[in-house]
Amino acid sequence: MGRSPCCEKAHTNKGAWTKEEDQRLIAYIRAHGEGCWRTLPKAAGLLRCGKSCRLRWINYLRPDLKRGNFTEEEDELIIKLHAMLGNKWSLIAGRLPGRTDNEIKNYWNTHIKRKLLGRGLDPQTHRPIGSRPAASMGAAAVAPRGLSFIADAPKAAAATTVKMAAESAEEGNGSAASMEDECSPGLNLELSISLPFYPSKPSSSSTEASSSMTTTTAAATSDSTAAVAAAESAHKPYTQAICLCPNLGFQRSGACSCHGMSDPHAIRFFIPLQGGQHVLD
DNA sequence: AATGTATTCAACCGCATATAC
DNA sequence: GGTATATGCGGTTGAATACAT
């Protein structure tokens, strides 16, 4: 069977965009805003696939894009984020204002990979080249200082992404911040979900903020994100405890004991530790 | 100047996930 | 709950450009 194509390929242009096409796309999005990419090409008078329009806008035409060379600070930030998140380019791009996932991905493949190789580090693992590959969680012994938890990058990313946030926005956070300091000193990821408090109808800016936070955590926790989204859409405070263990693959192991939690403001998650141990917070 | 090789990056493709019905 | 559709993401490609011979 298979899925129908995203657009009618027989009548769409491909390849490089012309100036006229760019102008049409910019004009349309200025007038109508982003979104509904499938219908946009027709509405804007473009013979392009919706996906192509979206990509062109996001990667090239968006007015907030920062063109030009990456700075040394950006380089280091990308390296640190990649060590923690892996090839999650969109998450990494979320921490670099004005940069796109595609741009960072290209830059990684053309520059940073070589830079790391020059330092004697494996670009994928961030460990010294020639060091033994991690057997389960034993990589801690060979990982560079501060990156000892990356033996299982996806799960580490998921856990790192989820910062405890039962407290309100004004309150500080202790454990997660210290974990970041420990993992990458000086790097403030703020890849966190918090429990936004809606005393009344939220302003647009707060909605955007919580939306972006939801985006950064989507990969880690679809179920909990759904819970957050549901509460957001209803503009209500959360009334259910959110368990992130299934997203991290622990529930079946019996490690999860979240069910039966009485605290309705709690989110539970694992903090990866050196040596493969995990602790429930 | 001509040719070959390496590098860059915009764009495409297919898959995964989210959402609507 | 199941299916169809839309959107987003990451991997890959290939044309354009830069550089070396």
Automatic annotation (TrEMBL):
The keyword Iron does not apply. The keyword Glycoprotein does not apply. CDD domains: SANT. SMART domains: SANT (SM00717). Residues 9-61, 62-112 form the Myb-like domain. GO terms for cellular component: nucleus. Transmembrane segments: none annotated. Signal peptide: none annotated. InterPro entries: Homeodomain-like_sf, Myb_dom, Myb_TF_plants, SANT/Myb. GO terms for molecular function: transcription cis-regulatory region binding. It is found in: Nucleus. Residues 9-61, 62-116 form the HTH myb-type domain. Keywords: DNA-binding, Nucleus, Repeat, Repressor, Transcription, Transcription regulation. This is Uncharacterized protein. It comes from Spirodela intermedia (Intermediate duckweed).
